[in-house]
Write a structure and sequence with these properties.
Elements: H1 8-23, E1 27-31, H2 37-48, H3 58-65, E2 77-81, E3 84-98, E4 103-114, H4 123-137, E5 142-146, H5 149-152, E6 158-159, E7 165-166, E8 176-180, E9 191-194, H6 203-210, H7 222-231
Parallel strand pairs: 7-9
Antiparallel strand pairs: 1-2, 2-3, 3-4, 3-9, 5-8, 6-8
Helix pairs in contact: 2-3
Length: 239
């Protein structure tokens, strides 16, 4: 038996088949309600478990975000398939500070997750595109996130260095990504991004919260090593 790896064209065709299959199902992109909270937390836990470190804390982040001052409820969307929530996205306010000490409000999303059984079928992309248009209509100049560039460049995100947007230490992490919604907004100024303090998770509190859920095995996965590399990677300006 000869095993062959599919080429890029074939992979695209396979993904299109998956997407067309979902178009025939009862897919509903809608706002999250209070009745969804537990289901979204369970979904998020399933999506992130052992991805970045043994276990995860993103489901706890969902739990505390909803009551945080920076949470944007009108951008809190889920994807429902045949009555089951299989994807979710949450947004918070974030802030750009330029070299003139001017502060501009932006938004950031996270967690964004898709249940493992439904990944690579366009559901995460559907949530991004849905909410991206809503953010643009709100007059927000940019969406700024931390994430894997492989997942977001196809949606128009670029590294912060391309817009002179750094973290608060003046560095340009590989995962600092910016989607400019108002062309030319960034101009020649230098900016620093300040995200919501909601993302400063107390791991002990997250571990205690996790006890409410069915026990799952914490273990090593190769994605954890890749994550450690990514968060230690920084970009430099061309010399």
């Amino acid at each position: 038996m000869k095993i062959r790896i599919s080429n890029k064209k074939e992979q695209t065709e396979i993904e299109n088949i998956h997407k067309s299959a979902f178009e025939k199902t009862d897919m509903n992109i809608r706002l999250e309600t209070k009745d969804d909270y537990t289901q979204v937390e369970e979904l998020t836990r399933e999506a992130f478990w052992n991805l970045y470190f043994p276990g995860c804390n993103e489901h706890y982040l969902c739990h505390i975000l909803r009551g945080h001052k920076d949470f944007i409820s009108e951008l809190d969307y889920v994807v429902e398939l045949d009555g089951k929530i299989v994807a979710s996205i949450m947004y918070t306010h974030s802030y750009l500070i330029n070299n003139d000490e001017e502060t501009v409000q932006t938004v950031s999303f996270g967690p964004l997750c898709v249940h493992p059984d439904y990944q690579r079928k366009g559901l995460g992309s559907a949530l991004i595109e849905k909410t991206k248009s809503l953010v643009a209509n709100m007059g927000v100049p940019a969406i700024i996130i931390y994430g894997d560039p492989h997942n977001y460049c196809k949606h128009g995100f670029k590294n912060g260095i391309d817009y002179q947007v750094s973290d608060m230490d003046g560095e340009y992490p590989l995962g600092l990504l910016v989607l400019e919604l108002q062309p030319g907004f960034f101009g020649d100024k230098k900016w620093k991004i300040m995200q919501s303090d909601a993302y400063n998770i107390d791991q002990n509190e997250a571990d205690e919260f996790d006890k409410r859920f069915q026990e799952k095995e914490k273990k090593f996965h190769h994605s954890q090593e890749l994550f450690k590399m990514n968060i230690r990677a920084y970009l430099k300006h061309d010399s």
